[in-house]
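Hey, resending since the last one bounced:
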Amino acid sequence: MNSTKAARRRPRPRAPFGALAPTIATPRFAVYAVCVLVSLSISYLLGKDMMWDTLDYHLYAGFSALHDRFGQDYFAAGTQSYFNPYVYVPFYLLATSKLSALTAASILATVQAGILWLSYELAVAVVPHATPRSRIAIGVCAALLALANPILINQLGTSSADMTTTELVLAGWLCLVHALRQPSHARLVCAGLLLGAVSALKLTNSVHALSACVMLFFLPATWRMRLRYSGSFGLAMICGLVLVAAPWAIHLERHFGNPLFPLLNGVFHSPDFPTSRLQDLRFVPDSIREALWRPFATIAPVKMVDDEFAAPDLRYAVLTVLTVFALLQWLWRRLRRPDRADASPAASQSSRLLMALGSAFLIDWALWLTASGNGRYFMPMACVAAALVVALLFRLFTAQARIRNYLLLAILAAQAVEVCAGATYREHVGWDGGPWFEISAPKVLVTHPALYIAFEEQSNSFVIPFLAPGSGFINVDGDYVLGPQGATGRHIRRLIRMYSPDLRSLVLQAPGSHGKAAPPPDLSHENDTLAHFGLRVDTGACDRIRIRDVQAPWRTSSAEGAPGRGLSLTRVAQPTDAFLVSCRIVRRTRGDSSLIANERVANEVFDRLERACPELFQPAGSVTLDYGDARAGYAWVRRYGNTDQSTVIAGGIVKFIDPLRGGPAVYLGRESDWEKSSVALSCWRHDERYYAVVSRK
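The structure tokens again:
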């Protein structure tokens, strides 16, 4: 009897994870788990990320955040070298750890699945009066529609900072939506801190922070309380911005005299960078008509609409149509029954939330199109658009559930077709069990520090962490071309003196057949560039750095990729090994006087061309690049970052080309005519392309 009672009193052993059982059993947990599995699957199917930005500056940014590179590097990754790098630290730590590339990408994809979780929560929060079953359906449909974004899919499991910052933006907007339901200083402070911090991590997110302020007008409170709430939000946003931006801004101010270098240099006037305005006009509409058409232009499966890849997206067109329909429905009801109020407080609250979120989205859309029009920077609002589409459908067709369901299925199916059949994704680089960057370099390069001078628009800065500690790096031909004059010339000469005689060039050598090394690259351009500093390349003392599984050319996918490549386990273009050739740089015994004379003439022609057509060739006054030699003839090139155009003088002819969009070169007259005086030009922009015609007298 006593033993029976003791057995009854003895505590039963708890099942493993027993405390988590109620959470695991919820529909929300199931949705979250499916989102993670989908993200992992897509990341695996698309393969390892070896895209342009990853190689150009993502790895270097994370490296520079943890290692002070200001004293030994100079524009190592172009202008991107000096943007806030802290958001890239996780990728750098994962990519340089002992983890396989697949494991590292899976960790990134798991974290990035949070975008889908937040899209689910945002949609659920916007329609608070729905039944539990309807709320789950609303959230799931919003998460599916948020996922059906080719730009988002293409960045799952990659180093992209846009994915991380999208989560922070969505979290801030979600806090604001909850504050609209039940105002509190805590929610608004949380939203402000998140939006301020994410703006500091990547300045393009400041657009979303500014447009979020619109939602404060919809707080259910008196104007006095709204002012207090707005003060809490604004102060928290400033604190978040300063706390995250200040450490890096102090470095920039100390080295360049501009805490936002190279941005806003027209205000701070650092001698290391031009003071002209910088704005990437690649995707900015050139007229109000094109801006109004943009929601429908994104439907077409073509590149260079809001992304370099073909990224068709019909969600914005659907949202536009639904919004117009909702306004017409509201006007019809107001005209028929002007005194009728909302049926219930819950319905009134839902209307206010939709109005607040929709108004903020509209302002964000306008600011985004004006600032960049780049779809990668709009990913947070793409998720907001998904939530708005689903919420509007459930609101407009409350009494017509069958019609609503059919419409939802049709929208999801149509976007799925766009995603699978019309979009272009990154080239597939398979998983081989190795680390992210499989780099083999000769012993001398990993043990003996040197100053490396790179000569590629793609900076190759990803190789820096794998070189000897203490090595320096300069990229003279990046998105900001460095010249021998002014502050840039002084910095380059200082580094040359500091490292001399340990100076080396770094040039991409495209792979030959079957992955074998191609013939040595032509180094005439490198020698002409180094001649300004009294240097030349010693081709008799070269080493090669081997990089496994790299596409060549590395930017083919964004510039010339064919639309329509869907998700696949097979390699579309077999990646192969590429080589970086590093040769010793030695003193030059004599200069080339003809090079200096010819360059002076070319600069005069370029300057006149820029004055004749300032809207096309901006920012003006960039450094001139030269290719060829005195015997074969020189080709002179200037690149214009704002408009993505390049001007070329070759064979006595002046022309401009669009390297990104392609197309034939445009004739701008003869060099001899421009030498005498400026030639009359007619320049304009249409459908986001640039045109110029020599005016006939």
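Residues 439-591 form one domain.

Sorry for the duplicate.
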